[in-house]
Amino acid sequence: MFGLGNNGATRHLYFIRLKLFCSTTTTANAEPNLLSEFLVNSLGFSTEKAISASSKVTCLKPRNNHKPELVVNYFKQIGLDNAQIKMLVSPAPRLLFADVDKTLKPKIKVFQELGFSGPHLVRVLSRSGAFLRTGLNTGIKPSIEYLRKLLGTDGYVAKAITRTPGLLSYPLQRVMSPNILFLQNLGCSTLDIRKLILRNPRIFVQKTEWLEDIVQRVEKDFCISRDSRMFFYGVEMLSSLSKSNLEMKLEIFRSFGWSESDIITMVQRLPLCLTTSEVKLRNILKFYMEELGYESSYIASHPTLLMFSFEKRVLPRNKILELLKEKQLIKKVPCFYTVIKCSESEFLENYVLPLRDEMPEVYDFYIKGRN
To answer: Does the keyword Lyase apply (predicted)?
Structure first.
């Protein structure tokens, strides 16, 4: 009844060896396979990746309060699953030998004091990069104080970290200050810089030469001047796309007959339209140009058309508009752009709710499509 089968005996032997591994002084080179076995058995690493990860640990001296299973159990207690834990420990398996009470909990408390909790905390922590390997008093706390001075409130600090979870892994004052100074020298206001940090903090942890190149491309390639209200959006757009990815998106527009002038007009009006996925761009351009017959010049001058959800907004509202035209239920049919850009409440009030009794199928079609 209490006997062990082959698998049970193997597991029992493994945990005996792990206990010895975690309670005696040793080195990773002496017993490299023990850490590998732990990564495989406890976190689901492949053997190859476990060996690769364990090879990064040298001069390891586990103590009673520095045990891999304690670290894994703590991560699971705060809500991380195996995949998220693997994401944290793969680049730095020494993290498994951190002191939970003295090292991990104080750092995670920083996130909690900023308002992160539950799934939100788990999501940010699992994507936080080297945060848990950054010094608390030498790196994390000074960086938070620097962000507070820049952004004003803990709420804004939390928003910036949510945008870029690995933000606190950087020595922020050292890496952000040159980029902020560069933008200030261009004439950018403190408010504009704060808005850009909140939208895309990653821009400010890059090398200043990189940011200088982005600014030059915004001005040269898309003719967006520094005093344009779209300038910062142009910087944000280019900073989020590789040159190859940007070129692929521009080629989509060209494949639909767009001229370079059309493309520049569109980007000058709404740079972030180029952050739309390639699949969506193809689908929505095909719909607007081949099914509805819009010219590229019209779309370029109304680029918000490219930003609306194709499935949840464009298609359902177009269907409603077609039904209204077919049944002649409104005296003056608005243009498609007017119908698409109005708010959801306006659309319901003006085009759907008034027809609930006279044409219930219109109402049912739209309401069901939204759910």
So the answer is: no
* DSSP category for residue 99: -
Euclidean distance between CA atoms 321 and 352, whole angstroms: 10
Domain ranges of the chain: 311-367
Per-residue model confidence (pLDDT) at position 127: 87
pTM, two decimal places: 0.75
Backbone angles phi, psi at 166, to 5 degrees: -85, 10
Give the pLDDT mean for 175-200. Answer: 94
Q: Which residue has the tokens 């992160």?
A: 116
pLDDT at 1 over 60: no
Distance CA 256, CA 274 (A): 15
CA distance 234 to 232: 5
DSSP state, 115?
A: T
Which of residues 78 and 366 earns the better pLDDT score? 78
What tokens were used for 1? 């009844």
Q: How far apart are the first and last CA of the chain?
A: 54
pLDDT, tens digit, 9 for 90 and up, residues 249-296: 999 999 999 999 999 999 999 999 999 999 999 999 999 999 999 999
Cβ neighbours of residue 290 closer than 8 Å, sequence gap 6 or more: none
Which of helix, strand or coil describes residue 23?
helix
**Tens of pLDDT, residues 93-141:** 888 888 999 999 999 999 999 999 888 998 898 888 788 889 999 999 9
What's the angle, vertex CA 179, arms to CA 175 and CA 180, rounded to 5? 110
State how far the Cα of 262 lies from the Cα of 268, in Å rounded to an integer: 10
Which value, in Å, is the radius of gyration of the alpha carbons in the chain?
28
**CA atoms within 13 Å, Cβ hemisphere of 215:** 19
What secondary structure does DSSP assign to 260-315, as a single string? HHHHHHHHHH-GGGGGS-HHHHHHHHIIIIIIS---HHHHHHSGGGGTS-IIIIIH
